[in-house]
Amino acid sequence: MALQSLLAVSQVSTAGVARAGDVQVSLVTIYPGSNLYEIYGHTELRVTDSLSDTYYNYGLFDFNAPHFVYRFVAGHTDYMCGGLPGYVALREYMGSGRKVVEQVLNLTADQARQVRQLLALNCLPQNATYRYKFLSDNCATRPRDIIERVLGKSLHYHIAAGEKQETYRDIMSHYNGNYPWEAFGIDLALGLSADTVISYRQKLFIPMHLMSAVAAATVDRPGGGQEPLVTATRVLNPGSDQGTVLPPTPWWATPLALAVLLLAAVCYATWRDLRRGRLSRLCDSVLFLAYGLAGCIVYFLIFVSTHESTSPNLDGLWLHPFYLLPAVMVWVPRWRKPLLWLHGAMLVEMAVFMIVAPFLPQHFNIAFYPLMLVIVLRSFNYVMLNRNNASQ
Q1: Which sign, positive or negative, has the C-alpha torsion 118, 120, 126, 132?
Q2: Sign, Cα dihedral of 338, 343, 348, 349
């Protein structure tokens, strides 16, 4: 169903809700799917009463929106909230085989009505669009915030004994384990703040973490004492606890395998150049052009994009747009001496960075290291073949 149709259904779904009584609110968790945007799961809030059954979804977006790809990369990720009838909301998940779990929340009648009113307000056309942030403002954090707003200080999360300290990157790596290219991209795009230890509440940006936190949470009652936040748990659609994620990527198709293959090819090309005493300019030009373009993307994320956690990013120290210079300069004979000094500087820079990288406070994907060695080899190769030009 097109997004416009879904939003139209949303307006119909919420139009008569205020007249209904006996409101019940549930947290609905959809386990991971096979697509990249599904591997972290999904959260919705279900509101039922005597007249309606509505699922409120904060994860609606339109692929057909103008300049969608650029806006997404730039961090202008506008998502929407919509309320959909139960038979519409569950149709996709029933067909995909993804497990769906409902947790009925222990709210008073007044609290349940407050939740319904807040959700209906958020679905109004003037309020439905919000600036999505994957780590701090998403389909799981929005329902969490509404529950916390209504319950206030009466809500208590209970941290399990031995709860380990984790970073955003640690948690994401648990879910993208079968998707090494996704992990590679995340490790390249996210910087220092993704490796900062986060609080228990911050971990609830992942739907399954929110589900577990809600299952263990309690609420204070006016008469004294505490009661579980969840009164009933139901499986709306059976499925695996691992979701429907794809099998592990074959080792030969991982970023590490391809990076090592590239390194092996560059080792051969470098050996051949040194043996012949002649530089393969096409090899250098193609390699440094590719690295430079990748560096442009990294620098765009650091200096232009408004995505959270993309700046500061230490990947910009080894992958940057300045590689475009040797890609062009190698074809101009009179630039041979400046290029020699540039390669010498890059050789020292990369060698030092590879030595200190394990001690830096940011995680670097293991596939990055063969890619760094490629630069080391080609810069070393150029210096060795042109070292006599330094004194000319």
Answers
A1: positive
A2: positive
